[in-house]
Design brief:
By secondary structure, the chain is of the alpha/beta class. Helix content is 40%, strand content 17%. The chain contains eleven helices and 13 strands. The strands form four sheets. The protein has a seven-stranded parallel sheet, with helices on both faces. Bound molecules: NADP nicotinamide-adenine-dinucleotide phosphate.
């Protein structure tokens, strides 16, 4: 297939492009700025918020994949959930429709739902609604936290753990996550293109290791060959007063939106493994491989 991908230059995109190239697909990649890429990848310089920069390039493709997303808004730079989740999806869908492309894969996120609380999840839901309302043969994926050699979350915690054995935890730290490897997410996207029965479906993706935030910290410390860190607890009520004031400072590590999503947890039943026919990679084993190298 010839596949048009937006957001392919990011963390998950790297895994997805490798997977798709390995299966013999040809890729057309929307990039902000040209960069060196493997053979088989054609770059289209453009911006997902400016459809005129990529619409023509979608024509002639067999499938479109939209991976574009942000975890944190920068309104002063005009980087918002509305623009990059909702408007971007509308633009991608319109380009696919105009270009005569029938197949469409959308990256969403676990926890996205009609009555979502966080702005991230709300905007991902609005984007999903646009996809569901389209006439394309769509498939939506909602992963939990995605990990892999170049992820930001696990690597950020690992960097902190290398500097200090003290890791403050907001609230109880008992809220759970079920991380999934980026290779597994990539494989699901690639398999969806080969499985017509996945059209019209949304899949929740998670790994098989369900860890509380505290257990996640311990697992990362173990992967680094360290003992479990000391985890002082910052009272939730106090943090709910501090974060709204501090969150506009770009280097402040967490926003209210992200805290909301952490507290909601990010777990699922793993039934995607039956549909896609393979087992998720283990969290502890996989992070052990890449954290020991950095
Ligand atoms: N990582 C996770 O744990 C996780 C979990 C669940 C869902 N997701 C979703 O998975 C997707 C990919 O996440 P990721 O972790 O790979 O994020 P990432 O590394 O930040 O990648 C985001 C991609 O979007 C592109 N992009 C941003 N603004 C754009 C624009 N205006 N026009 C064109 N491209 C633009 C970026 O390109 P530039 O680098 O050139 O700006 C980059 O390729 C997102 O939709 C995210 O919400 C991620």
């Amino acid at each position: 297939m010839k596949i048009f991908i937006s957001g392919g230059t990011g963390f998950v995109g790297g895994h997805l492009m490798r997977e798709l190239l390995g299966r013999g697909h040809e890729l057309r990649l929307l990039t902000h700025r040209r960069r060196p890429v493997s053979e088989g990848i054609e770059q289209i310089e453009g911006d997902v918020s400016r459809p005129e920069t990529f619409e023509e390039a979608v024509r002639g493709c067999d499938a479109v994949i939209n991976l574009v997303g942000i975890i944190r808004e920068s309104p002063f730079k005009d980087i918002t959930f509305k623009k990059l989740h909702v408007q971007a999806t509308a633009n991608m869908l319109a380009a696919a429709r105009k270009g005569g492309v029938g197949r469409y894969l959308q990256m969403s996120a676990l926890g996205t739902r009609s009555n979502a609380v966080s702005d991230y999840h709300k905007s991902k839901w609005q984007a999903e609604e646009l996809v569901r309302g389209s006439e394309l043969e769509w498939t939506i994926f909602r992963p939990s936290l995605i990990f892999g050699p170049k992820d930001s979350f696990v690597n950020m915690l690992a960097a902190q753990l290398r500097m200090t054995p003290v890791m403050p935890v907001i609230g109880s730290g008992k809220y759970r996550l079920q991380p999934i490897h980026a290779d597994d997410v990539a494989r699901c996207f690639a398999l969806a293109l080969e499985k017509p029965e996945t059209a019209g479906q949304a899949y929740e993706l998670c790994g098989n290791d369900c860890l509380s935030y505290e257990e996640l910290l311990d697992a990362i410390a173990a992967a680094l060959g360290r003992t479990a860190p000391f985890k002082p607890h910052a009272p939730l009520g106090l943090m709910q007063l501090i974060i709204p004031i501090m969150q506009n400072i770009p280097l402040f590590p967490i926003t209210m939106d992200q805290l909301q999503m952490l507290l909601e947890e990010s777990v699922c039943d793993g039934s995607w493994q039956t549909i896609f026919g393979f087992k998720a990679r283990g969290f502890k084993e996989a992070i052990g491989e890449y954290l020991s190298k950095t």
